[in-house]
């Protein structure tokens, strides 16, 4: 949920082009990590509703911003 929230924040502040730097590039520089091109995530501007709960046979988890409509989502 946090990646779509951050994408919306960066867009609202007219700094969408800095999102990758914030999420990935700066950490690679700071921690001397190698950027893995096969580990790319893509966000698309498409509304979706955060589920009220994620659950399986044994657990229930209420996600951050449960029930809220977000403007970005991870592209599958």
Structural write-up:
With 76 residues, the chain is an alpha+beta fold. It has one domain (1-74). 30% of the residues lie in helices and 22% in strands. It is built from two helices and four strands; from the N terminus they run ααββββ. The protein has helices spanning 2-12, 19-30, and strands spanning 43-49, 54-55, 60-61, 69-74. The strands form two sheets. Strands 1-4 form a two-stranded antiparallel sheet. A two-stranded antiparallel ribbon has the order 2-3. Strand 2 and strand 3 form a beta hairpin.
Low-confidence region ranges: none
Quaternary structure: single chain
Q: Give the overall pLDDT as a whole number.
A: 91
Spatial strand sequence of the major β-sheet: 1-4
Distance between the termini: 14 Å
Tally of individual helices: 2
Q: Radius of gyration, Cα only, in angstroms? A: 15 Å
Structural class: alpha+beta
What fraction of residues sit in β-strands?
15-25%
Q: Would you count the extended β strands for me?
A: 4
Shape: globular
Biggest β-sheet: count, sense, barrel? 2 strands, antiparallel
**Residue share in helix:** 25-40%
